[in-house]
Amino acid sequence: MKRNRIIAAVLAAVLALSGCASENSKDKKDEKVVQKKKEKKESKQEIVSLPEESEAKPVVDSTLSDLYTDEELLAYANDHRDDFWHTYYWFMAGTFFEGSGENGNILITDPRIHSLQDVENVWYQYFSRRYPIPYMDVNTNVFKETPFWEENGQVYERYHIDGFIGATYFFDHITQKTDDEVWFAYYSKDLNGNINDTQEQWSFVYEDGQLKYGTIVRNNQ
Fold it and tell me: How high is the mean pLDDT of the chain?
């Protein structure tokens, strides 16, 4: 009887140890499963957070042909012809800014102007920086004189007034076009209705996201 009790006690102890081992094994197995799930989840999160290579698209600058048809460019040029000419002419003649004084010696009172550099900065609000300013070059200026100058810390303008010929002007057709510049043939129509080629070409330049005035050249230059 005593022997049977001892055997029963030993068996009970063995079963208890086996159960603990089994429980420990199960816990470790569960921990491994949880760890794998956690690693898999973190891996997915990392993948989601990284941008796909296909999303990175190269930025391609648009050309004039991408943005406008030839008809639209010609219409735009004629719509802005008067402003192009007036701005160009007023800088050449030294009549663009408000001022006071006598013709030929006008003190500029425009609050933006304190130096010749300020005058140039206003020019480039309208015209492309592709071309140097033409109005200060007496070889280019049709009036053969300097339209702006500084004196005693102030800026003056020539204020040259000239007559106008009774004719209308327009751009007839595109003569050439690049990715960012377009040239137009410049024609006139006199009071009798006669149309003439002025032998000039005017350009517009696509710059800073907009069309700016370019330059004016004669065909025989």
Answer: 80
